[in-house]
C-alpha cells in the first residue's frame, strides 16, 4: 500500500520507470515472504490437531465418568490416520489462501495502473480483499477444527459400541434454526440428518453427546 502512490503515477518515459513491472516485482516479493516453510507449517497444524484430539478425549471421558462412574479406555485406531489426512488437507488450504489473495491483488494493481485509476481507489479495494481473505481464513479455521473434533468423537464413540448420540448446540443466538430444533434429540451415527453429524455442516459448533445406555446394559 505505501508503494501505490508512486506506482500509480503516469510516466511517459517507460525506460526510467515501468510501473506494472515494479508492481509485479513487489507482489512477487510478498508472495515469497508469505510462502513459509512447508515442514514447519505441517508440524504446527499437526500439533494443533493433537491438542484438539486430546481435548476431545478429555471431554468424552468426563461424560463417561458422569454416566457410569468409571473410566473407560479410549481406542484410537483411526485417530492417527484421521490426523494425517486432516493435516494434509489443511496445509493445502492454508497455502492456497495467500496465493488466491495475491492473484487478486495483482489484478487490482496492474489493471488499475493500466486504466489510470487513482491509487486511493486501488488501496480501498486491496484492503477489502485482505478483509475477505482474513474472514475466509477464520471461517476455514473454525470449520476445520469442528470437523476434526466431530470425526474423532464419532470414531471413539463407535469404537466403544455407542451407536447413538444426543445433539447438543452452543445454546446461543448464532446457532442455525434447524440445529436449534435438534437440541437434545437422539440421532444415530449411521443415519445422521441430511447435513451430517455435529461438526460436519459448514462452521457447525454443535457436538454429539454419547448415548451410553448400551454401555450401561453391559454393567
- State the order of secondary-structure elements, H for helix, E for strand: HHHHHEHEEH
Helix percentage range: 55-70%
Q: Quick one: how many beta strands?
A: 3
Q: Beta fraction of the residues?
A: 5-15%
Structure description:
The protein is elongated and about 80 Å long. It has helices spanning 4-8, 19-35, 38-68, 79-115, 119-159, 177-180, 213-218, and strands at residues 164-168, 186-188, 207-210. Helix 3 packs across helix 5. Helices cover 64% and strands 5% of the residues.
Structure summary:
The chain has 219 residues and is mainly alpha-helical.
Tell me the layout of helices and strands.
Blueprint lengths: L3 H5 L10 H17 L2 H31 L10 H37 L3 H41 L4 E5 L8 H4 L5 E3 L18 E4 L2 H6 L1
Antiparallel strand pairs: 1-2, 1-3
Key descriptive features of the protein:
single chain; about 220 residues; mainly alpha; 3-stranded antiparallel beta sheet; 7 helices; elongated
Amino acid at each position: 500500500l505505501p508503494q501505490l502512490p508512486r506506482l500509480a503515477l503516469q510516466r511517459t518515459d517507460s525506460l526510467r520507470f515501468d510501473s506494472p513491472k515494479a508492481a509485479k516485482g513487489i507482489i512477487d516479493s510478498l508472495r515469497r515472504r508469505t510462502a513459509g516453510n512447508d515442514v514447519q507449517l505441517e508440524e504446527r497444524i499437526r500439533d494443533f490437531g493433537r491438542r484438539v484430539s486430546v481435548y476431545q478425549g478429555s471431554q468424552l471421558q468426563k461424560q463417561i465418568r458422569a454416566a457410569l462412574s468409571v473410566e473407560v479406555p479410549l481406542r484410537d485406531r483411526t485417530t492417527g490416520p484421521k490426523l494425517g489426512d486432516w493435516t494434509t488437507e489443511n496445509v493445502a488450504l492454508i497455502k492456497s489462501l495467500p496465493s488466491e489473495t495475491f492473484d487478486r491483488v495483482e489484478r487490482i494493481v496492474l489493471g488499475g495502473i493500466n486504466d489510470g485509476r487513482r491509487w486511493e481507489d486501488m488501496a480501498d479495494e486491496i484492503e477489502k480483499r485482505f478483509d475477505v481473505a482474513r474472514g475466509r481464513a477464520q471461517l476455514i479455521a473454525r470449520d476445520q477444527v469442528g470437523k476434526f473434533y466431530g470425526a474423532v468423537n464419532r470414531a471413539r464413540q463407535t469404537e466403544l459400541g455407542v451407536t447413538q448420540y444426543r445433539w447438543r448446540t452452543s445454546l446461543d443466538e448464532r446457532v442455525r434454526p434447524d440445529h436449534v430444533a435438534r437440541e437434545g434429540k437422539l440421532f444415530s451415527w449411521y443415519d445422521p440428518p441430511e447435513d451430517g453429524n455435529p461438526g460436519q455442516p459448514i462452521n457447525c459448533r454443535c457436538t454429539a453427546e454419547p448415548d451410553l445406555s448400551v454401555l450401561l446394559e453391559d454393567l
